[in-house]
Amino acid sequence: MHSILFRIGNFELHTWGLALVLSIVLGVWVASKRAKKFGIETSQILDLAFVIMVAAIIGSRLWYVLFHLDEFRGNWFDVINPVHDDYFGIAGLSMVGGVVLAVIAAFIYTRVRKLNFLEIGDTVAPSFLLGAGIQRVGGCFMAGCCFGKPTDCGLGVVFPPGSVAGSIFPGQALYPAQLLASLLGFLGFVLVLWLGRWHRFKGYTMWMVFAYYAVDRFLVDQFRYYEPEQIMGRLGPVVFNVNHLLLAAMFVVSAAFWIRGYLRSRLPA
Fold first, then answer.
1. Which end of the chain is more exposed for a tag (fewer CB within 10 A), N or C?
2. How much helix, strand and coil, in percent to the nearest 5, is found in the chain?
3. Residue 2: what pLDDT?
4. What was the pLDDT predicted at 84?
5. List of long-range contacts for 87-91, beta carbons under 8 Å, 24+ apart
6. Torsions phi, psi of 74, nearest 5?
7. Contact yes or no for 14/143 (Cβ under 8 A)
């Protein structure tokens, strides 16, 4: 695990930032290639990428802050302040909140630009899974965040004391939840591209990606560590946390719209 790739004077290149840049660049490249299939201009993809990136960061931060209010009470400026004693940046992001706000921002963007939201969604949705695959391994795993629960299985990973995981569970082996999330992201990316050969209606790929991510994240969360106050309840070995309300809504809505689109596509013209 190396959260910092190298230092030049006071400049530090963090793996999390590099993974973010790489996921954005590759995601935009994939979406631009797919844009031709749907008759969308590359410039529109570039503009949308910027909107999604900003919305994702804001949404991720807000969702994290919402469930960590005690951390900021009395120091509310820290919510947006990137300057700290020992580093520059904003620590504390929750991907689920970023996804939700990014979708809302993309919908507003397409309405303003008079574009078809479903076609745009079909174009860019696979890039989200690709980005998740890159970010979880290149960012989260290397930085020691978004880590798993303690485990005795042979797959456990011991994180160094300087990481968040190592400070909470010093010397303990943890499930590599980040690697599982990364693997599911890459598998989902390949799967939706393969299923795209049978594209039948507008929203076919987008709703599929959202439904897949909801299941993907729910599975990962069974191995991932969450603070006690974020746990809503348990059903046997299955754990439910605050993210699962949004994930459940995402899955139900996506599945319903996908089934609706599929059934309509089978009606005679």
1. C
2. 65, 10, 25
3. 63
4. 47
5. 87/12, 89/14, 89/17, 90/61
6. 90, -10
7. yes
pLDDT at 149 (0 to 100): 95
Separation in Å, CA 218 to CA 30, 90, 160, 231:
26, 26, 27, 13
pLDDT top residue among 187 and 153: 187
Q: Point out which residues pair with 14 in neighbouring strands.
A: 4
User: Element (H or E) spanning 13, and its range?
Assistant: strand 11-14
CA torsion sign for 179, 246, 125, 103 is: negative
Task: Please identify which residue in the block is written with the tokens 């809503």.
Answer: 232
User: What distance in Å separates the CA atoms of residue 212 and residue 191, rounded to the nearest whole number?
Assistant: 10
Tokens of 111: 């309405």
Place of tokens 């070995």: 237
Which amino acid, one-letter code, is at 108?
I
The rounded radius of gyration (Å) of the Cα atoms in the chain is 19
Cα torsion through 131, 212, 98, 49, rounded to 10: 50
For residue 42, give the nearest of 30, 52, 55, 26 by alpha carbon. 30
For residue 204, the one-letter residue type is Y
Which pTM was predicted? 0.85
Residue 267, helix vs strand vs coil? coil
